[in-house]
Amino acid sequence: MASFLWNFFTHGVILPVMAVQDPFSKSSLFEQAVRRLVRPLVRALIAQGVTAPALYRIVKQTYVQVAEEELKDSATDSRISVMTGVHRRDVKEFRSLSRGEDKAVGQKVSILATVVGRWLSDKSFVDADENPAPLPRTAAEGASFDALVQSVSRDIRPRTVLDELERQKIVAVEDNMVTLLLEGLFGSADMDQKLHFFAHNVGDHMQAAVENLISEGAPHFERAVFYNYLSEASVAEIETEARRLSMDALQKVNALASARQDADKEDAAARHRFRFGHFFFKQDETGQAQGIHDEDA
């Protein structure tokens, strides 16, 4: 069986707060959808040693944060408690907590991603086929790895960036030449960076899907192709081609975004962001996952 799947949920129903009932009592389809979404997350939670009570606290805190954002200036502890079912005592505690992300990880990811992104898109650092060119580590003039890093930021030493990229097997250094390893871009070597992309990639994908489910506006782009009853060799062949096509698409979108970002530097209204990605999931007939592959632009 084959299908080209798109998100066909384009609207939702908003009920008055006091009239809302447990949707699971009315819609087994919604409960099934939630269970399917939560199941892989629970696998990750168990792997990280997070227990159900700890998750419940996270869920309650997130309910409070989302309700506060929805209510905006009219948000009070009592209104949030009624909307979410979270006890008012807990609402007050959660609203006082900081939501700050680990800025050090975010800055590290940003620098590395920007350096690689410019290497993939800037005409100064690509070859005639528009692939990232091997770069001398230093050069008196012209393209070099040091020049690449300094074009992104002069606040960090090129050697520091090089050591980190080499440690993560994203670049190879030989005879003072630095080569970008495209296969190294399929995943980070560090758990903190894996968790960063796990949160942002899956989070943005979920956000797009949720907007498509509950909004009446234009849907976010969300498409997937899926087949079953294939041999392992056939899936491997398809995965190889999917990776090739995905990397080509990511490089093209990266080049366009880089050019537009340069053009928008002086635009005071340039406050928007986007995330574009691909994934490939494969599974055998017993339901045992063989792996998930996710590429980041």
Q: Which terms would index this structure?
A:
297 residues; mainly alpha; Arc Repressor Mutant, subunit A; two-stranded antiparallel ribbon; disordered N terminus; disordered C terminus
Topology:
Elements: E1 2-6, H1 28-47, H2 52-71, H3 77-84, H4 88-95, H5 103-121, E2 135-136, H6 145-152, H7 158-167, E3 171-174, E4 177-180, H8 191-214, E5 223-227, H9 232-263, E6 277-283, E7 289-296
Helix pairs in contact: 2-3, 2-4, 3-4, 5-9, 6-7
How would you sum up this structure in a few lines?
The protein is 50% helix and 12% strand. It has 297 residues and is mainly α. The radius of gyration is 23 Å and the shape is globular.
Fold and architecture overview:
There is one protein chain. The chain is mainly alpha-helical. 50% of the residues lie in helices and 12% in strands. Among the domains are: 2-15 and 190-296, no CATH class; 103-186, Arc Repressor Mutant, subunit A (Orthogonal Bundle). The chain has helices spanning 28-47, 52-71, 77-84, 88-95, 103-121, 145-152, 158-167, 191-214, 232-263; strands at 2-6, 135-136, 171-174, 177-180, 223-227, 277-283, 289-296. The strands form three sheets. Strands 2-4-3 form a three-stranded antiparallel beta sheet. Strands 1-5 form a two-stranded antiparallel sheet. A two-stranded antiparallel ribbon has the order 6-7. β3 and β4 form a beta hairpin. α3 crosses α4, α5 (103-121) crosses α9 (232-263) and α6 (145-152) packs across α7 (158-167). It starts with a strand and ends with a strand. The model is unreliable at 1-20 and 291-297 (pLDDT under 50).
